[in-house]
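Exercise 7b. Backbone tokens:
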């Protein structure tokens, strides 16, 4: 016997699932665009600073390779190349050794600096002079900032 009750043939009404997260409201789109722009600007600012500091980081890495008194000229060249990166027309770059030494001494007045004339041009530089110069350069490179180098 067939069921003739019409209410049994009806199924419950099911409401569609409410999708609350997509598409977002216009305010969320605006916030997303603003956030992306702020992040892009921040990354650009960070990247420019990172690139400006690259010669200083490379000089510090190259300094770790200089260990022997015979590398006094390389140590001096390292400082001049670093100064040339940040101040290409600095007068100390083409100055005689005495003026170059005075310029370096002005950078760290409390740190002793050996006589560069004898250190750079003697065939056998003294180990103590080289160690003193190496200590001076290490201290200066660890203290100096990119901003200070750009202002020289």
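Sequence design result:
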């Amino acid at each position: 016997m067939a069921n003739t009750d019409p209410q049994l043939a009806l199924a419950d009404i099911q409401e569609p699932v409410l999708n609350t997260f997509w598409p977002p409201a216009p305010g969320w789109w605006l916030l997303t665009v603003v956030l992306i722009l702020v992040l892009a600007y921040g990354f650009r600012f960070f990247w420019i600073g990172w690139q400006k500091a690259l010669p200083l980081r490379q000089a510090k890495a190259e300094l770790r390779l200089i260990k022997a008194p015979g590398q006094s000229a390389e140590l001096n060249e390292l400082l001049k190349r670093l100064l040339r990166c940040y101040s290409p027309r600095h007068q100390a770059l083409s100055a005689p050794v005495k003026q170059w030494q005075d310029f370096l001494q002005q950078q760290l007045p409390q740190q002793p600096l050996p006589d560069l004339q004898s250190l750079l041009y003697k065939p056998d530089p003294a180990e103590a002079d080289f160690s003193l110069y190496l200590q001076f350069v290490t201290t200066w490179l660890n203290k100096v900032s990119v901003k200070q180098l750009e202002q020289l």
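Instructor comment: The mean pLDDT is 91. Residues 53-151 form one domain.
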